[in-house]
Amino acid sequence: MGATVTPEPMGVAPMQGTVSEFDPATGGGAVLLDDGSRVPFAPAAFHASGLRLLRVGQRVRLLRDTDEEITRVTLVTMS
After folding, report:
1. What domains can be seen in the chain, in order of their start residue?
2. Within 13 Å and on the Cβ side, how many CA atoms surround 14?
3. How large is the C-alpha radius of gyration of the chain?
4. If both were cysteines, with which of 17, 46, 50, 56 could 27 make a disulfide (CB 3.0 to 4.6 Å apart)?
5. pLDDT at 79
């Protein structure tokens, strides 16, 4: 069976960037967007992804809620 995809809330576009920091002990970290902005993410967003590890330099997608809070960090994959 395939993974369940949860759509983005209406009007909230996902963001993509490169992992610039990641603490495997807590699950928190930060991503640099393509425009150079640093976006931190909380451990809860990492744990919601189902991932086990991120590495600096890895390309990720940040999913947000309607309050622009990062809710999940997922890997960018080709489809």
Report:
1. 15-75 (2.40.50.140)
2. 15
3. 12
4. 46
5. 55
Q: What is the 3-state secondary structure (H, E, C) of 1-66?
A: CCCCCCCCCCCCCCEEEEEEEECCCCCCEEEEECCCCEEEECHHHHHCCCCCCCCCCCEEEEEECC
| pLDDT, tens digit (0-9, with 9 covering 90-100), for 31-60 | 999 999 999 999 999 999 999 999 999 999
Token pair belonging to 71: 């809710």
How far is Cα 54 from Cα 11, in angstroms, rounded to an integer?
28
What are the tokens at 48? 């919601």
- Compute the Cα dihedral for 8, 33, 42, 1 and give only its sign: positive
